């Protein structure tokens, strides 16, 4: 105690990065700056305000599926410029580079705490998760596969809606996917949708809203019309929180809101309840 | 003569078809109901929230076949149009339609839908009451309905709000009707950020009846000549009488396959 060192103002300060390479990510909601390693621990949920950062389709599959259990289906299927729509080829090429995915959805089967399920996850970096013909085809094939094999389906949605560049054929995917989901449902199979930010347009008006159990991520924007379109139509500003997950919960259009960090257990518990005793998972 | 053709018939380009499909004097669902069917009794309300006048529904006779009739209704004059929200339904409109479809299924009565909307309404109440969910449910139930369903696009077929009444065994289209995933105006301003390119958008979206036939989205183009109502009545009656003789499982199976093959050719 006698030989107390003179205090350096930096000593004992907690916020000094211990590694120079630590990358800080500003949170768009609270503006604080969690580090990338912190975010990887929290599954990209802001540790300060619970903001759910946008993540890729593959990341979603990774965090819910048991390690190495995901088997992708139809992964080489790619979109073509069927209507010869201006600039669409270029946009597709960019989407491929940006997302490193072949389409706006990945589909496959996997295990969650050892419970088998079919899964799809949409990719926002691929043309805003817009629904083209291949998106619809892959989702339809997944439900047909699940119906044939008596499997549940879990789907993570994120989408700006139908893909304009494919004209009416993109709209028809709403009907195609809905028909396959109805058959899957009529055969007594479970479908759980997890709606993530943002889920709008033709996807909301079809497979996002056709699940037996509908969950949403906190604060996700979910709606048919986008907020800008509504503001233009009604010529006034929308209230805060309009079309957010909490709003839909309040209005009765989602069953529950589930933090990303709880999703794997949540899904496993639901799979267990619906497993008819044939699975052997431990949740 | 060319002008006459452009206004009242003849081959139209995409942009002209958009104008014709939206034209003020165009026949609406109520005109088709009164000219093709008899004994129409309107049935209103969704039993959940209210009665949406942007959609009309009811029972009628098509020759000697009792049918359920459902359609978007835009109205003819300013007052009617505003009462009917210009044919843009709220969720309760789709739920009213669905209720009538389920009743048709119960009594094994064929359903005839007339499609004519710029789109489902984009507003606060519509979102609060689940516009997306209402459309999704309508498509899902209609596509698996265990009774024959024919949908006819008579004017504007605007996106999901139109598709919600167009998941039928067969979809027909008037020669100057349009069917599109987005309005040409929306496409030009959202995709190209250039509202002046609306004409080009009309062409590029491929939204005419001919385009739909080529893309395999519709089965039949109905010509808009002076005998339109007569022709339509005859063809509808023939088609529905035939569909009523089919095994219901086969009918539903072929409706599934109709939509299943749309868009993707491996």
Structure, described:
The complex is a heterodimer of chains A (283) and B (266). With 283 residues, chain A is of the alpha/beta class. Chain A has 2 domains: 31 residues, no CATH class; 219 residues, 2-enoyl-CoA Hydratase, Chain A, domain 1 (Alpha-Beta Complex), CATH 3.90.226. In chain A, 33% of the residues lie in helices and 14% in strands. Chain A has a 7-stranded mixed beta sheet, with helices on both faces. In chain A, strand 4, helix 5 and strand 5 form a beta-alpha-beta unit. In chain A, helix 4 packs parallel to helix 5. Chain A is globular and about 45 Å long. The termini of chain A are far apart. Chain B has 266 residues and is an alpha/beta fold. Chain B has 13 helices and 8 strands. Chain B has one domain: Alpha-Beta Complex (2-enoyl-CoA Hydratase, Chain A, domain 1), CATH 3.90.226.10. In chain B, strands 1, 2, 3, 4, 5, 6, 7 and 8 form an 8-stranded mixed beta sheet that branches. Helix content of chain B is 45%, strand content 18%. The radius of gyration of chain B is 18 Å and the shape is globular. Classes of the chains: A alpha/beta (283), B alpha/beta (266).
